[in-house]
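It would be a great kindness if you could assist me with a short task in structural biology. The matter concerns a single protein, recorded as an amino acid sequence and a row of backbone structure tokens. The record follows directly beneath this note:
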Amino acid sequence: ASARMAGESDEWKESARTNFALALRLRNNDEVIRYSFEEFATAHLPLRSDERKELAGYHLQLGDFWYGRNHEMLAEISYRRAIRLDPYSKGARGHLARISRRRQLNERYLGELELLAEIDRENTRLADTITYYQNLVPRLPSRQRGIRQYEVSSSLASVVVTDLFEPWDVRHGYHDAGAVMGSLLRDALTPEPSLRLVRLAGNGHSVRELVTARQRARAAGAEYFVHGRYVLGDNSVRLEATLRHAASGEALTNFVSSRRGNHALYEAACDIGDKLTRVVPLVGQIVRIQGNEVQINLGRVHGIQKGSVFQVFQAASFRERWLATLGRIQPAQPIGEITVQQSDEVVSFGEITEKETFGGITTYQYLLVKPKDAQK
């Protein structure tokens, strides 16, 4: 089964919808069939179709399952996939907002509540909660400085995940299951705060050759792209992903995840996404200097808190060279340090606590979190 089999004609779409629905009824625990149906539904069925609502309901339940076991990231991934299938899902949007509130991300929470209010107009209690947070947000450190933190430019590394996932063994009986692997990994990376996922328009993720994957990643301005291989068994999967540098095409590292059970594909994709995020360097940038205060485009969601120390690097090409090697090279000598005095959700504010030369630290210079063993 494949979302691509539907083509563009109404006859093909209706045939695909019928076949997917029948296949899923016969094999309700088959993840390849389910996720292929979801990709087809997202691309070809009306937003308010019963199929999209039913498919979204599965991920709402899955999100609640993970949330109940304190796996917030897995829950968020499920809720976001539910919303992609059914943008009008009150449950998925409400539960996604609940995660933001639990993380004390008040500005993000307010934005999610306002989206929820657009589709849940009869919920009077929601209006009261929105009013409370509308009064609270202006007191955030960023708003007190006249900054809309979610509009601040990012220096995070960006990645394109293609559908170029090839089977080790083609005898598994599915057509183009690689598209499912790519889709799940993209969903797994979407909520990751320390990496920027680039989604390509149309069928941009659908590639058959490595050279095409690289070309599309470079055209999208991404630093990295991902492809891989997989082995499907009875209720099991072995998923391998390769991270490549888009500019050079060099393979930087591989990730492997093996899982069993009814959620094997989902869990393997989430595991690969987590491993990928952990190896990609976090690079910050000075956004503004006002008096003695320095504004940085990283905040609490990136692990930055009061007392965090950044090293400042002068060269304009520092970020490019650092990301090209996954931070494995010895960095140049930093020209100074910044100590965070106040952190907000995605930005922070600090002061220059050490510098080599007077006036040497300026806006747009890149930052690395100082290793803990190097901090005094």
Summary: The first helix runs from residue 10 to 26. DSSP finds twelve helices and eleven strands in the chain. The CA atoms of residues 174 and 354 lie 59 Å apart. The chain has a mean pLDDT of 93.
